[in-house]
Structures are given as C-alpha cells and as structure tokens.
Amino acid sequence: MYTAIGYAAQTATSPLAPMQFQRRSPRPDDVALDILYCGVCHSDIHQARNEWGIAVYPLMPGHEIIGRVTAVGSDVTRYQVGDMVGVGCMVDSCRSCKACQADLEQYCEEGPTMTYATPDRVDGSNTMGGYSSSIVVSEHFVVRVPEGLDPAAAAPILCAGITTYSPLKHHGVGPGHKVGILGMGGLGHMGIKLAKALGAEVTLFTRSAAKAAEARRQGADHVIVSTDQAQMQAAAGHFDFLLDTIPVQHDLNPYLETLTYDGVHILVGLVEPIDPPIHAANLILKRRVIAGSLIGGVAETQEVLDFCAEHNVSCDIEMLDIRHINEAYERMIKGDVKYRFVIDMATLKA
Ligand code: NDP
Ligand code: ZN
Questions:
Q1: How far is ligand 2, taken at its centre, from the CA of residue 172, in Å?
Q2: How do residues 155-208 score in pLDDT, each as one tens digit?
Q3: Residue ranges with CB less than 5 Å from ion ligand 2
Q4: How far is the CA of 111 from the centre of ligand 2 (A)?
C-alpha cells in the first residue's frame, strides 16, 4: 500500500475537500500511474451529491484520467514505465460473461466495477477516482494515449467522447444521416464533433440562442433553440437520430416529433423516469424508437482515442485548479463552462 491524496466528498451535502488515503501496491496485472489530468463530468456531481441514490462515501470522483505509468506488475505486457495512458469509467468487470466476451464490459452481467464508489472485486475496498495523485488499475482497463493528442484535452474523450461515440457507431451513423445533439455541455460538444467526423449532418438543440455561433464553430451545420416552439415545429419529421445529453427530466415529446419514421432518440443523460410521459402515438405512428446507451467498452474507448487523433478531434477544455472544484461544480450546473473542466493535477501538490 502507499499513501495518495485527492479530493473527496464525505457526505451528500459536504463540499469536496482534500483527503489522504491508501492505494494498493500493484497486483501482477496492475498498472500504476501518476495522474496528470482528470476531466470533470456531470456524473461526478450526480454521484458526489448522491442524486442517483447509489453513492458510497467517502466519494472521490473522476473517471476521465490521464497519467504516466510509474510501475507495472509482473504479468503486464502492454505498458511500460513512462507511457502516457488513460483510465475511463470502469476499472474491472467479470471478464467472462457474454457482454465482457463481446468487449462490452459496461454491460457486464455481474455489473462492472466503476472507477469510483464501487467495491473492488478482489479486496472489497471502495474504489476512489481520478481527483487524486495516482491510481492503480488492471492493465485490461488501461488505454493508450495516441501521439498527437494533447494529453489534457484527451482526458474528456475517456467519458464524454466514448459516451457519444459508442451509440453513434452502434446505430451506424454516417454520411447521409441527419443527427440532432441535445444540449451542448461536455458530452454534447463531443457529440457534435464526433457525429460530424463520422460524416453526418449535425444540428444542435440548445436552450440558449447565445450558443449558436459556438456550435457552428464546433462543426454543427444548424442550431435549433429548443425553447422556441416555431423552430421546433419547423423541424418536424426531419432527423434520423437524436443524441440526448440533457442531465435532468425533460419533455421528450417535442423532440420525438422532429424524428423521421424509424428515427431513434438515444438517451445518455437521463437516468430517472421519463417525465412527462411519452405519447405512445409519437412512437407508433412513425415506428420511432427510444434507446439508451452507457459509456463504451475498453476496446471501443481505445478506438475513439485513435479516431480523435486521426480526425483531429479534440475537446474544448478549461484547465482547473483542484482547489476550485466546488465552484466548478456550480458553474457546470449553470452551464458556464466551455465545455469541459479538466483538473491540472499539479495543483493538488500546491
Ligand atoms: P454538462 O453539464 O456538461 O452538459 C449538460 C447540457 O445539457 C448543458 O450544457 C445544457 O446544454 C443542457 N441542460 C442542462 N440543464 C438542462 C435543463 N434543465 N434543461 C434542458 N437542457 C439542459 O453535462 P455532461 O455533458 O457532463 O453530462 C450530461 C449527462 O450525461 C449527465 O447527466 C451525466 O451524468 C450523463 N452521462 C451519461 C453517461 C452514460 O454513459 N450514459 C456517461 C457520462 C455522463 P444547453 O445549454 O446547450 O441547453
Ligand atoms: Zn462521465
């Protein structure tokens, strides 16, 4: 064991504060890394405040982790000390069920071990995430940062990137498709860039007309202000896919009406009941589908990193001093970030 430091919430109502804790010594299949950067995902806020009802305290968030390898276990073959690597939302899974065998560890039948607030499969300890100086992770759950990607800007690819890439790929999004992205925060801005890089015609749905110029700069072909009924109605029957990153309950019906027949509304932001209810006619009359998607598997996470390097896709980040993490949460809730905070872990030592 060795001592690490990080920022954690002790209860659902306490702010994040510095904490010392123990990281395990590397097991034979483990990679240890010094964390350089960690992105700040809205899920971190949901979890730190127990908005999903599954938090375990102390809760140390962070699942967009970039760092340098400092040690490897005796069985590790793919990484060496000094490599620039990433760790995303998961650190383990059963590795033998149908989903794990299909490289879909996120759908592990026994449930994946998440990067934070989940019991470790070997020693039962509560996993601690990337708002910290270091982490120790099984080699299978480590990905390589390709040359040519800025390491800090690559961090959000490990959650915001893969969460938007995976459903776009799964549903076969490509040239000729019209895709709507709902909400331009961390996930949404990556959704715009990735859908565009896959060849689709991309429209941002946003509450804020002020984001229109920004969205076009991200690559969006069109912008619809979702609070403007006339704009919503003018888009009726238009889209093949909607990728919905809105983190709170919202009325899906006006969005469903913008889908063509066989159109698919993919939910990634909402994990609560859909409220207000869906008018079933909005599905039946046009054979429309509502779908969901959870992050992506490890192999696909490597794929999206490589895809971003190849297509020159990068996240727009604001570097964050970890001492300002609580203010950063408030700013994210207000939508005041362009478009992902990334913690500079050097500030943890300060
Ligand atoms: P952000 O806070 O960065 O962005 C969310 C965006 O949604 C905002 O920028 C805003 O866009 C829009 N929005 C916010 N509040 C409202 C509201 N009240 N009504 C309508 N639109 C709103 O969040 P992230 O992108 O980090 O995460 C989005 C959601 O995805 C979170 O709930 C997160 O937990 C979830 N998530 C899901 C994953 C999965 O695997 N399925 C993985 C990672 C995250 P605008 O101003 O343009 O309207
Ligand atoms: Zn996330």
A1: 23
A2: 999 999 999 999 999 999 999 999 999 999 999 999 999 999 999 999 999 999
A3: 41, 43, 159
A4: 17
Look at residue 277 and tell me whether its pLDDT is greater than 90.
yes
Cα 139 to Cα 71, 76, 105, 142, 238: the distances in Å are: 11, 7, 14, 5, 44
**Where are the chain's structural domains?**
2-159+316-349, 161-292
The CB density around residue 123, as the number of other CB atoms within 10 Å, is: 8
Q: Which helix (DSSP H) or strand (DSSP E) does residue 87 occupy?
A: strand 84-87
Best probe residue, ligand 1, of 107, 170, 224, 246 (max atoms within 8 Å of C-beta): 246
β-pairing, 113-114 vs 90-92, is: antiparallel
Q: What is the pLDDT of residues 63-92, one digit of tens each?
A: 999 999 999 999 999 999 999 999 999 999
Q: Which fold has domain 161-292?
A: Rossmann fold (3.40.50)
Structure letter (DSSP) for residue 349: H
User: Right CATH number for 2-159+316-349 from 3.90.180.10, 3.40.120.10, 3.30.499.10, 3.90.1300.10?
Assistant: 3.90.180.10
Q: Answer yes or no: is the C-beta of 188 below 6 A from any ligand 1 atom.
A: yes
pLDDT of residue 279 exceeding 90, the answer is yes
Q: Which two tokens stand for residue 123?
A: 């020693």
Ligand 2 centroid–CA 163 distance in Å is 8
Three-state DSSP state, 42:
helix
Q: Dihedrals φ, ψ of 184, to 5°?
A: -115, 80
